[in-house]
Amino acid sequence: MTHPNTPTLDDLAAALDALRAQTPLVQSLTNIVSANFLTNVLLAAGASNAHIDNVHEAGGFARLAGGVLINLGTPDDGTAAAFTAAAEAAHDAGIPWVLDPVGVGGLPWRTGLAADLLKYRPTAIRGNASEIIALAGRGGDTRGVDSADEAAAAIPSALALLTHADAVSASGPVDYLVGRDGNGGVAGLRIAGGSAMLPRVTSTGCSLGGLVAAYLAVAPTPLIGLAAAHTHVAVASEIAEENSSGPGSFAVAYLDALFTVDTDTLRSRARIEAFHPVEKDEN
Amino acid sequence: MTHPNTPTLDDLAAALDALRAQTPLVQSLTNIVSANFLTNVLLAAGASNAHIDNVHEAGGFARLAGGVLINLGTPDDGTAAAFTAAAEAAHDAGIPWVLDPVGVGGLPWRTGLAADLLKYRPTAIRGNASEIIALAGRGGDTRGVDSADEAAAAIPSALALLTHADAVSASGPVDYLVGRDGNGGVAGLRIAGGSAMLPRVTSTGCSLGGLVAAYLAVAPTPLIGLAAAHTHVAVASEIAEENSSGPGSFAVAYLDALFTVDTDTLRSRARIEAFHPVEKDEN
Amino acid sequence: MTHPNTPTLDDLAAALDALRAQTPLVQSLTNIVSANFLTNVLLAAGASNAHIDNVHEAGGFARLAGGVLINLGTPDDGTAAAFTAAAEAAHDAGIPWVLDPVGVGGLPWRTGLAADLLKYRPTAIRGNASEIIALAGRGGDTRGVDSADEAAAAIPSALALLTHADAVSASGPVDYLVGRDGNGGVAGLRIAGGSAMLPRVTSTGCSLGGLVAAYLAVAPTPLIGLAAAHTHVAVASEIAEENSSGPGSFAVAYLDALFTVDTDTLRSRARIEAFHPVEKDEN
Lengths: 283, 283, 283
Hints:
3 copies of one chain form a homotrimer. Chain A has helices at residues 9-22, 35-45, 58-62, 77-93, 108-117, 129-135, 155-161, 204-216, 222-242, 247-260, 263-269, 277-282; strands at 25-29, 48-51, 67-71, 97-100, 124-128, 167-171, 175-180, 186-191, 272-275. Chain A is built from 12 helices and 9 strands. Chain A is of the alpha/beta class. The first copy, chain A, has a 9-stranded mixed β-sheet, with helices on both faces.
């Protein structure tokens, strides 16, 4: 039986409408590789973005943002301090925030940063399977930004991380999402689709993290917000692949598709399927 | 009566010719979101760019640049020191420089930085209406990088900033520009056109600031340089919108159009109109 | 007589096959202007990339990378320390690494950084002619990132740098490459083609440096790796120019072409020619 809190197509379509109607403001603290593309993804999808990652302003701005993204792609001592300030402020003010643990596992310094940030209870965690596994302390070698594990292998780790976050996703050819509800139950969602071109364009994963922060600002539950972002990306990338002939034209078509996707397209193309993560993990 | 120093189409066409003939070298100190796109905008339009934002080199390089852009988008302690060094050096050496006060108003630390930088008398200031209002100390909440105010509402603030700068512009659906002449008079210019897609692509405003620095290097007056950059962008974005189907393809077409626009196109498409800012402000 | 170690078309085609088969992981320490485009170039061409430029992780990661790129485009005190850590670690662990001396010559602080990094013996050095001349201590004013000298004028300097590196290239309308063999001999290669659009798109040179690091990870000799990267870029940019109408669409078509170029296309379009650098220099 599908968990009653599992997002439905109606939930995802309503979230898309809410995103377009409310244009939530994301505060991104992301890496220098993805900063431009992530902002363009947010603007194309229907949100807005301000990249505020200095320690003097990160905390104060987080209290006013619709959602906050903290991405560990290219940290240094200065931005690491800003991460902490933003996470603490978001947590204290009840602002939803997303942790994207880029490179956690293979890189020890940021692995420690990520563990510290969990104290501030991210609303959602989004990463590749190997990063989710490493963040949960279950081993896994991330080999930088690649994802060596199939996303399904990360389900037990994603469930374990639900002690620190309300919803967790592991990206891969198929994405796996899990979320807690208020009664101790857990809902799971599998999202297929997407495009084989996504790994050929940098920052598609990082910008998905930003889009999660935007959807968390408008969605009724963290898992719906997380699922809405994953689905928006999966549908847009599928359309983009049909309109491109390589990674350069794919990235352009992807931004166009994020902008043009409407709820009818979302409903007809989304490939979501509930699964029962707890039972699977425990049996 | 139009102020005798108000830029004309002839002035703007001559500035475009000068840009292409001289390929001025801009030194940009800009944010990590816009650094790549801004450089591509400058190269496409006909200038060149070097992003020198460390404190060891920023001042020395500013003395050799054609124009300098200081953009407050993602400052940290290191780049803030470089901003001061570059502004001071440009001021001392008579190199035109542009202040783009991104996020000033809502973000207190950078608001202080911007106030300090005014001491070095920017040749031009370019911002969204809310940023111009905030920089002039007239209130206004910038809500990050969005522009909540219509640009026209910023005219009194832009005029007030002419005590610190030679020319000031407020960007919006219609841009408003003001500039001082040598006799205490003030000229105003309204520039329409552009594209509703501009706010859907990040760094279009920041890169306009870079283009202002390039035009200041070749234009006979600051107001002509400022107006030439705004017009080049307005015309190119209008063409780009005709050749695109979303923000991704718009950004690509925009770079192409910045490159291909010639003086004939500029003359036929530019929508400039003089206005009388002082009278309007005082009456 | 062609030096027996001069790369042939067979060598370059084999290197392209090896790149695609092995997907080498590059560690980039590059500037904030090029970080995104460089990563997209590597992903499109067939490699992968992780931008690890903090001092806490740069050295440790370099020991595990396939190749390392150190690009001096936008250094600060933090990344400069990471450059040293990465170069030292790569040198100690026998990992090939590339030095891209952006802006060396005109900018004194980074000129000192580059001189220090030569101690760790880069496998390859890639720069514009003026940068290669300056790095060899033979004068030359780099005027930022532009290349004021024809690349051929840099040949004596490139040869002089072979005391510090195994292979050196100077980029220009025609690229000149030199490399040492194990017997004290020197091979030279001239690579024509490319596109006049390359200087109109930022980071095409910087991303070539990243691609050199990728090819060094899979090629049998440094000069073959260096030549394979230059040739891949020259052929892809030639194709891109045929499919574009300005710098925006050129950049998109360039990424597509880097992805689609195969060994047949490489063989039919590559314009390589051996030259005898030592004899030319000494006579």
